[in-house]
From TrEMBL:
It comes from the Bacteria. Pfam families: Fer2. Keywords: 2Fe-2S, Flavoprotein, Iron, Iron-sulfur, Metal-binding, Methyltransferase, Oxidoreductase, Transferase. Residues 249-336 form the 2Fe-2S ferredoxin-type domain. This is Vanillate O-demethylase ferredoxin subunit. Its EC number is 1.14.13.82. Residues 20-122 form the FAD-binding FR-type domain. The keyword Methyltransferase applies. GO terms for biological process: methylation. InterPro entries: 2Fe-2S_ferredoxin-like_sf, 2Fe-2S_ferredoxin-type, 2Fe2S_fd_BS, Beta-grasp_dom_sf, FAD-bd_FR_type, FNR_nucleotide-bd, MRET, Riboflavin_synthase-like_b-brl. GO terms for molecular function: 2 iron, 2 sulfur cluster binding; metal ion binding; methyltransferase activity; vanillate monooxygenase activity.
Length: 336
């Protein structure tokens, strides 16, 4: 299926089943909010209210040339008239962010998936510490709005390399959010840099931590929290640059419904092998962070390398993320 990033009103409409999964929205505002980061406001062309979302939600975005990418909604969830995306032009872009930066102009109609939430606020009655690193501020900003609206106890710490890369400062540093927020610059004075251990030392032990950003930033926050005894079930994260490790030995993959067998070699994912053989596999992020390619396991034990399933779901071995996982057994049989 080919997905276009520019869709005119005269183009054929999606079929009924496909249309139910997508919203065709209009880019009503496009503005640069930081170095290499553009914010897009999307609204219903007829002015209808958009489906409700909760902080932490993301949407699929059709970015052109068959690409679908995931981006967090970063506006106040109380808003029903718009969805806002903040999208970084990734220097390592596999095509998605580059196509959106180049092509999503004001007035364009674009296809956006229904909001999905894999990174929700667990309990607004508990104190929260929010950590956003770089473009990871997007879901964290929506969380700050939701927590402020609920009258919850929270603090937001936004970490960026330098001032030119700090997005949405007008929103973070003014109005109702300002008393809760602090920005940390890597190139700034030592006393204003992020000190996770110090923050946690003075925090209520019931506090939930929410962290989003590059993998290194998340690892730093997680490791510091664990070092001072923070429970894993109070540390919640979402990564924007999950690395895919496809190392390991070959294994046999049996696609039960297709009646075909394949050898998956080191360095290739099951999804790549299946797609090369002409078997239709739904893929999107190709990093194990969206869940599009989850498939039921009928036999064998997956080597789970995704970030979408919980530890309990992985332990059950009921599903495998075909874009990034491998097998711990010589044979893996899947329902495909």
């Amino acid at each position: 299926m080919t997905h276009m990033s520019h869709i005119s009103a005269s183009e054929p409409r999606l079929d009924q089943e496909e249309a139910a999964k997508w919203l065709r929205l209009k880019v009503v505002n496009r503005r640069i909010v930081a170095r290499d980061i553009v914010a897009f406001d999307l609204e219903d062309p007829a002015g209808e209210p958009l489906p409700v979302f909760a902080a932490g939600a993301h949407v699929d975005v059709r970015a052109g040339d068959g690409l679908i990418r995931q981006y967090s909604l970063c506006n106040d969830p109380r808003e029903r008239h718009r969805y806002r995306l903040g999208i970084l032009l990734d220097p390592q872009s596999r095509g998605g962010s580059a196509a959106i930066h180049a092509g999503f102009a004001e007035g364009e109609l674009v296809d956006i998936g229904m909001p999905r939430n894999l990174f929700p606020i667990r309990d607004k009655a508990r104190p929260a510490l929010l950590f956003g690193g770089g473009i990871g501020i997007t879901p964290i900003l929506a969380m700050a709005h939701e927590l402020e609206a609920a009258g919850a106890s929270f603090a937001l710490h936004y970490c960026v390399r330098d001032a030119s890369r700090a997005a949405f400062l007008d929103e973070i540093g003014a109005g109702a959010l300002a008393p809760h927020c602090k920005v940390h610059f890597d190139d700034g004075a030592a006393e204003q840099r992020l000190d996770v251990a110090a923050l946690l030392a003075g925090a209520d032990r019931r506090t939930d931590l929410y962290v989003c950003g590059p993998a290194g930033f998340i690892d730093h926050v997680r490791s510091e929290a664990r070092r001072v005894g923070w429970p894993d079930d109070q540390i919640h994260s979402e990564s924007f640059d999950a690395a895919v490790d496809l190392s390991g030995g070959s294994f046999e993959l049996i696609a039960e419904r297709s009646g075909r067998r394949f050898i998956v070699p080191p360095g290739k994912s099951p999804a790549q092998v299946l797609l090369d053989a002409g078997i239709d596999v739904p893929v999107s992020c190709e990093q194990g962070i969206c869940g599009t390619c989850l498939c039921d396991v009928l036999e064998g034990t997956p080597d789970h390398r995704d970030l979408i399933q919980s530890d309990e779901e992985k332990a059950s071995n009921k599903q495998i993320a075909l874009c990034c996982s491998r097998s711990l057994t010589p044979v893996l049989r899947i329902d495909l």
